[in-house]
C-alpha cells in the first residue's frame, strides 16, 4: 500500500544527520494505485585499481535518487486533483497541505512555478508487523492520462524525490501517524467520460471546428525535472530537485474525415484543444490549450485490408497569454 503526505522542499546542503519523518505527526492520504515502481535507485562506482591477482579492488556508493512511477485509474478524487496541481505547479492548495487557497469547484488553474513537495509511504506486511519505507521531497515530474476505447482511463505519474528515510522495521504502526482510507468514487472510461472533445483551427478571425472523431487520446504533462547533484554535502543523494520548462503534449488516433489537421501542419496553423473528463456523477475536469501546433503525423493511412482510414497525430501546446500552456477547470457537484 502507498500513502502520501505533506513534506518540506528538502535541500541537502550541510553536514549532519537528516531528519526523519517518523519523528513528526503525519496524516497519510491513500494512493489508489494499480502499480508502482518507486525506489531509492543507487549508483555504485567500481575502483579501476590494478591488483596483482586480477581481482576488482572495491566499490563505493557514489549516487542515489528517489524516482519511479505510480499507475492509477482516473477518478474525480483528492488524489487526481492533488496530482494535477502538483503537475502544473499551480499555487492552489492541495488536500495534503495545511495552508493556502484550495482549488474550488468551477475554478480554473494553469501552469505556474509553485513547488508542491510530499512524502510517499510504502507499507510492507511482514510476519511481525510492517516494514515502513518513506521517500522524501517528492515532486511530480510528469503525468500522463491515456484515453482509449473499451477501457478505463488510466494514468501514470512520474515521481522525482530527494532521499529515503531510514526503514522502520517490524512495527505495527508508527506513533503519531494516521492513515486515511480510500473513498469509493466512480471510475472513468474512455467512451463515456471524454465529452465535448474538440480540435479547432484558427482562420484569422474565428475558431473553426475540425469535426474530428478520436479513437484514442493521450494527454501528457512534463516538468522536465532534474536532480541537482553536488559535492561536499555528505550525501550520495542530490542536493535538490529543479524543474525545467513546462511541456504539454497531446497525441492520438482519429478517423479520417477531412484534411484540416494535415493542412494545419503544413500551414503552421494555431489550434485549440478542448475537452471534459467526467465520471457518472459529472465530477472531473475540463482541459484546454489555446495555442497548439501539430508537430508530426497528420497524413491519413490504412493499416491493412478492411481497416479504417486513420490519422495518428501529435500536438504540442505553447504558452497562451491568457490561458497558459494548459488550463484545467475543476468540475464537482460535491
Total of helices: 3
Computed structural class: mainly beta
Beta-sheet strand percentage?
A: over 45%
Head-to-tail CA distance between termini: 27 Å
Radius of gyration: 23 Å
Q: Roughly what percent helix? A: under 10%
Poorly predicted runs of 5 or more residues: none
Give a structural overview.
The protein contains three helices and 23 strands. The longest helix is centred in the N-terminal third of the chain and has 11 residues, at 78-88. The strands form two sheets. The chain has a 21-stranded mixed sheet that branches. The radius of gyration is 23 Å and the shape is globular. The protein has helices at residues 78-88, 190-193, 260-266, and strands at residues 2-6, 26-30, 33-36, 39-46, 59-73, 108-110, 118-126, 129-148, 154-161, 163-164, 168-171, 177-179, 194-202, 207-209, 213-222, 226-228, 240-242, 247-255, 271-278, 284-296, 301-302, 309-317, 327-331. Helix content is 7%, strand content 48%. By secondary structure, the chain is mainly β. A hairpin with a 2-residue loop joins β7 (118-126) and β8 (129-148).
Amino acid at each position: 500500500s502507498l500513502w502520501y503526505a505533506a513534506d518540506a522542499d528538502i535541500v541537502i546542503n550541510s553536514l549532519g544527520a537528516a531528519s526523519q519523518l517518523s519523528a513528526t505527526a503525519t496524516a497519510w492520504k491513500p494512493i489508489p494505485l494499480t502499480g508502482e515502481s518507486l525506489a531509492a535507485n543507487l549508483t555504485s562506482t567500481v575502483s579501476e585499481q590494478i591488483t596483482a591477482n586480477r581481482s576488482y579492488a572495491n566499490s563505493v556508493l557514489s549516487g542515489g535518487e528517489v524516482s519511479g512511477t505510480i499507475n492509477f485509474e482516473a477518478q474525480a478524487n483528492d488524489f487526481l486533483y492533488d496530482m494535477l496541481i502538483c503537475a502544473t505547479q499551480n499555487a492552489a492548495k492541495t488536500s495534503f497541505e495545511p495552508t493556502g487557497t484550495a482549488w474550488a469547484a468551477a475554478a480554473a488553474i494553469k501552469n505556474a512555478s509553485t513547488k508542491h513537495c510530499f512524502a510517499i509511504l510504502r507499507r510492507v506486511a511482514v510476519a511481525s508487523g510492517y516494514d515502513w519505507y518513506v521517500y522524501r521531497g517528492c515532486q511530480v515530474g510528469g503525468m500522463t492520462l491515456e484515453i482509449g476505447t473499451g477501457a478505463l482511463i488510466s494514468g501514470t505519474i512520474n515521481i522525482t524525490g530527494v532521499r529515503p528515510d531510514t526503514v522502520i522495521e517490524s512495527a505495527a504502526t508508527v506513533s503519531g501517524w494516521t492513515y486515511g482510507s480510500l473513498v469509493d468514487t466512480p471510475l472513468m472510461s474512455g467512451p463515456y467520460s471524454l465529452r465535448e472533445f474538440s480540435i479547432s483551427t484558427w482562420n484569422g478571425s474565428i475558431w473553426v471546428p475540425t469535426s474530428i472523431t478520436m479513437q484514442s487520446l493521450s494527454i501528457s504533462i512534463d516538468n522536465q525535472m532534474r536532480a541537482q547533484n553536488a559535492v561536499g554535502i555528505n550525501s550520495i543523494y542530490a542536493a535538490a530537485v529543479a524543474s525545467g520548462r513546462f511541456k504539454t503534449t497531446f497525441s492520438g488516433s482519429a478517423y479520417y474525415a477531412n484534411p484540416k489537421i494535415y493542412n494545419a501542419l503544413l500551414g503552421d496553423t494555431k489550434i485549440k484543444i478542448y475537452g471534459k473528463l467526467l465520471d457518472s456523477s459529472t465530477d472531473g475536469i475540463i482541459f484546454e490549450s489555446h495555442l497548439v501546433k501539430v508537430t508530426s503525423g497528420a497524413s491519413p493511412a490504412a493499416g491493412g485490408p478492411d481497416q479504417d482510414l486513420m490519422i495518428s497525430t501529435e500536438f504540442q501546446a505553447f504558452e497562451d497569454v491568457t490561458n497558459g500552456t494548459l488550463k484545467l477547470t475543476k468540475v464537482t457537484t460535491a
